[in-house]
Design goal:
mainly alpha; 42% helix; DUF3820 family protein; QSregVF_b
């Protein structure tokens, strides 16, 4: 793969967001998590059970391979261009107790 092909591939990875599941738009509004920020454990789960069909599956497999070999830093320019790493945090309900004498 030459530089220009790799640059196009990274551009495509940079634009792809997870369209379903825990990291999809319902879990990470408004558009879902960028696939380059998906946790390695999530990608490994797909690797064991099979990636989705189509271009999304191909790109997820490439991202998984890049992360498996420890080259996650290749995605840093994409993160910088998009405002930083996207994280997934489960929102905990705030507990307020205004009872007397507690």
């Amino acid at each position: 793969m030459d530089r220009e092909d790799f640059r196009k591939l990274l551009g495509e990875i940079g634009q792809m967001r997870m369209p379903f599941g825990k990291y999809g738009p319902a879990g990470v509004p408004p558009r879902g998590m960028p696939i380059y920020d998906l946790p390695p454990e999530y990608l490994s789960w797909f690797k064991q059970r099979g990636f989705p069909k189509g271009r999304l599956g191909e790109l997820l497999a490439i991202v998984c391979e890049i992360k498996d070999v420890g080259m996650d830093l290749v995605f840093d320019p994409l993160r910088e261009a998009n405002g930083g790493r996207v994280t997934y945090r489960v929102k905990r309900p705030r507990e307020r107790n205004f009872g007397e004498g507690d």
